[in-house]
Amino acid sequence: MILNALEGKPLPVYGRGEQIRDWLYVEDHARALYNVVTEGKVGETYNIGGHNEKQNIEVVQTICNILQDCVPPQQNVGAASAAIKHYKDLITFVTDRPGHDMRYAIDATKIQKELGWALQETFETGIRKTVEWYLNNQPWCQRVQDGSYQRERLGTIS
Fold first, then answer.
1. Distance CA 88, CA 82 (A)
2. CA angle at residue 2 from 106 to 147, to 5 degrees?
3. What are the two backbone dihedrals, phi and then psi, of residue 66, each rounded to the nearest 5 degrees?
4. What pLDDT, on a 0 to 100 scale, did the predictor assign at position 78?
């Protein structure tokens, strides 16, 4: 969604975007996995979730609003070519998939109670950090999209 918006491309949303998902910032997920490996009991199962249930349309609109704040379309060559005033103008509703689940959710109470794991990011701070990461790493994103990135290690000396 972020890259499409930056390029002024449609932002396809299934149905009316009413499907609900539980959102978790990637670094919170990584911390939870580390917590399970270092503190969890062998053979136990720990669900990792964010307690951040949002409709897909809400997530897309949030991304659009953050982009609007950070890189208004008038300042963005890709989006400006689409002659849009707001990234939300790019939202396009498409036919929903047959059998598309309306809600995915996780009960993460066990990992919180037994291992003391807790989120460090809210949905809002995590999604903003995610959008900012994409904005700050556009050359890398381009290399992944055009196929020139060949999974070489980044940050190493040749």
1. 12
2. 105
3. -65, -45
4. 65
pLDDT at 39 over 60: yes
Q: Do the Cβ atoms of 125 and 132 come closer than 8 Å? A: no
Domains of the chain by range and CATH?
A: 2-146 (3.40.50.720)
Neighbours of 103 (CB within 10 A): 11
Are residues 51 and 22 in contact, defined by beta-carbon separation less than 8 angstroms? yes
DSSP 19-48: -EEE---HHHHHHHHHHHHHHSPTT-----
54, two tokens: 């949002």
Q: What is the pLDDT of residues 18-33, one digit of tens each?
A: 999 999 999 999 999 9
Q: What are the backbone dihedrals phi and psi of residue 154, each rounded to the nearest 5 degrees, phi first?
A: -95, 145
